[in-house]
Each structure stands twice: as structure tokens, then as C-alpha cells.
Amino acid sequence: MAKKTLAAFLIYAILFTTVFVLLYPFLVDDGRVSGQHIRHEEIIVGRPSKAVHIPNAVEQRQVLGLYEDSRSLSASQRDSPLVAAFEPHPMEEPQQVPELPIVQDCPYIPKPLMKYVPAHHSVPLTNEEKLLAMCRQSKVVSLEDLFTETMVRTLSKIGEGAFADVYGCQGDDWRKLALKILPVGGDMKYNDEEQNSLKSIQPEMVVTLELSLLGDPSRLEDKRFPHYTKNFMQVERAAYCEGKFPEFMLDAWDEYDYRKDSDNDRPDIFGPKQQYIAFLLENSGMQVGSYVYHSFEEALSILRQVTLSLAIAEEALQFEHRDMHRGNVLVKRTKEEFIYFRFNNKDYHIKTYGVQATIVDFTLSRVTQKESHCLSHLDLNNLPWLFKGKGDIQFDVYRSMKNATKSEWHKFTPFTNVLWVNYLTVKTKIKGS
Q1: Has 165 been annotated as catalytic?
Q2: CB 322 within 8 A of CB 411
Q3: Binding site feature residues
Q4: Which one of the listed residues 323, 347, 379, 392 is annotated catalytic?
Q5: Which residues are annotated as a binding site for ATP?
Q6: pLDDT tens track of the chain, all 433 residues?
Q7: Which of 83, 242, 279, 287 lies in disulfide reach of 275, CB 3.0 to 4.6 Å?
Q8: Geometric angle at alpha carbon 197, from 132 and 407, rounded to 5°
Q9: Angstrom distance (rounded) from CA 256 to CA 268
Q10: pTM of the prediction?
Q11: Domains in the chain and their CATH numbers?
């Protein structure tokens, strides 16, 4: 019994230390915080000098823009290990956060999007009507019509997952874009798996669009919005479409298959009535698992960008990623010296050291649309194979999530985000180290 208690204590101590190191700059009073308003708090990578003042718990909360009285904090601030675990306390089993009431007819369709729904729509909306509204369409469009001439000319396949292929191209303004194509609603199996139904795809759509909205540039300038981060996948367009794969897409798929030996089915299996959800995205670089950091500062900047973005999404949307392995965090070079954030109406910036992180792929994720209390999530109890993997700590994280949530996947358990931050920290590789 004593050995089990000691083992549990060591595990939680490691996790707590990891998060504390990543968020340490939040806690440091560098002389600019006390007694004056600052537009942006700089989060600086590096080890503090001996002269640095280490604030107590009350000061820590002031620097974070929180309150001395913990009763003033929201539920997710109190319970999120990423945000509120700065006061010394005994390491205990992660607690479930009190749930908001859940509305049955989810996802919630905001009033401005209802103009895309037929005047004599169903009550409640059909799954097709919900998808059209979220994509801002009045009807299903042709898959081929998504592409401009420039996109066709520059198209290549750049990645794949069990439920989707991802293509890269350039827009008419020559910006690099990514296009994620997910088959939905069909009877034909894809990669030996059932396709997402028009209903089961909705949680991923809601999470993707809600997180993208957190990065809307207008939010950074408008103080009415309490949260901002652009480190989640930014959606240029979501589309509900149908049709056979055009030849230029099949050519791109074949070229990828020749180079990489694709694990996915060739999409010529799909007929003219096959439907898809497509996300046109800002191209966010390469997978962090393939990126070799050139310095300690680069690695720590990426981890801090990811950690702060998770904390913001937890507070704004009760967000859990639940699948943040190294393929779902992207890294790209940037000329921006700082990346800006807002958490609970307080602004921060992190020094980039030339790299920017983007968190992607929300197939397994969870959010609550706070305006309506609509919950969007995938019940991972329906994916038993997810918890049986071996050979990498990634699979241990899935099992740890299951233990932390007690398999109640609808509940908000932000401790799962800490598990993935710890995983990324363990997996970080620095050139020459």
C-alpha cells in the first residue's frame, strides 16, 4: 500500500513540476506588474536570475489576472491543473468539474447562421440543415467547385489520418493552405471503418469552428472578448460537398502513395453521391514529431504556446483535446518576435524564438458552447481499440485519460490536457542533446 501511495505521489509530482516549469513565467513578478496597468505581460524563456522575486500564491493569482478569494474564481479556473494549480496543496485524484446544464438539441446554431436554413425548416433542425448552417451554405456544393485554378495547379497530398486525407495548395493570394477532406454519410467503409454519419461529424465541426473563432484577429483589438489565441487550427472555410474525387485530386493522392505508401483507401471508391465535410485551413507547417528543435528556447516556446492556448480554451469552452500526440501539434517558422494571447481579459505575449505552434485535429475533443450550454464530444467508450495500444507512451496517455474521466467522457476533466502536455514534454528532442 505504501509503495502504491509513493508511486502515485511521484507521478503527480512530475506532472505538477512539468506544468509549473512551463507556466513559470506567468508567476514571476519582474517589477512591471505590481501597482500599474500593463497591456501585455511578456512570458520570457530563460532561467531567472538570483534577484528574481518568487511571488506567493496571492501574487501569483494577481499576475494571472485571477483573484485572491478562490470563491471568486470560475469552476474551470479552480479545477484546471493548467491554470489554477499554483497554490501548494496535497496531490489528490483529479476532481470532476461541476457540469453546466446540457441542452438536448445540439449543436447550437447562432442566429446569424439561421439565414442559411430554409424558411420552412424542420423543428428541430435536421442533421443536413445543421451542417449547411455551420458551413454557411444554402445547399450542398460540388467537391470540385471548392478549387480555384491556382489551387488545382499547386495541389499535393501532404498527410492522412484514419478518417481523412489532407492536401496542400496555394490560394489565389499565394498563401499556403491545407484542405482536410472527411467522407461522411455513406454506407461504404473507408479504411475498414464506418464513415462518420451526418450526426457524428458535428462534434468535430463544432470544436474546430469554435477554436478557430478564438483566433479571429478582431478579438485581439476588441476588449469585449475576454479570450484570444491563434494557436489552434485556423479555418478559412468549412464546406459541405458531394461528388466523385476529380482526376487532379486522384493524381495528387497517387503521387503521395508512391512516395509514402499510403495506408488509406484510394478515394476513387467514392461515387457521385458521396458526401464530404471539407476544411480549408491555414497551412501551419510540419508535425512536431518530425521537427528537430535547434535550441532549448525554441522547444520551451512551443510548449508554452501550447500550454497557454489549452488554458484559454479550457476557460472559454471547457475544452479537452484528448488526442494531442506529436502528429496533432504543428510547427512552422515565423518572423514574428512575439505571439499574443488574452486570458480572462488580461493580455500576454510569448517570445517565439522563430517558431509558432498550432494545435490541430479535434476528432476526439470536447467543448461546451457556453452561450447555449451545448456539449459537443465523442464518446470514447465506442472506441475500445484506442485503449489497447502498446509500444509508446502515447497509448499510456489514452489509458490514463480513461482513468481520470472514469469513462464519463461527457464530463469536463481538464486533467486530460495536463497528461498530453506532459507527453509532449517527454517527447521533446533538441538538436545535439
Answers
A1: no
A2: no
A3: 180
A4: 323
A5: 180
A6: 544 444 444 444 445 445 444 544 443 333 332 233 323 444 333 333 333 332 333 333 333 333 223 333 344 444 454 544 333 334 445 555 555 444 445 777 777 777 777 666 777 888 999 999 999 999 999 999 999 999 999 999 999 988 899 999 999 988 999 999 999 999 999 999 899 999 999 999 999 999 999 999 999 989 999 999 999 999 999 999 999 999 999 999 999 999 999 999 999 999 999 999 999 999 999 999 999 999 999 999 999 999 999 999 999 999 999 999 999 999 999 999 999 999 999 999 999 999 999 999 999 999 998 777 889 999 999 999 999 999 999 999 999 999 999 999 999 999 999 999 999 999 988 776 6
A7: 242
A8: 115
A9: 15
A10: 0.76
A11: 111-427 (1.10.510.10)
In angstroms, what CA-CA distances link 4 with 1, 7, 378, 395?
5, 5, 32, 22
* Cα distances (Å, whole numbers) of residue 272 to 40, 241, 269, 275: 52, 11, 10, 8
**Which amino acid, one-letter code, is at 84?**
A
Closest by CA to 39, choosing from 349, 308, 313, is 349
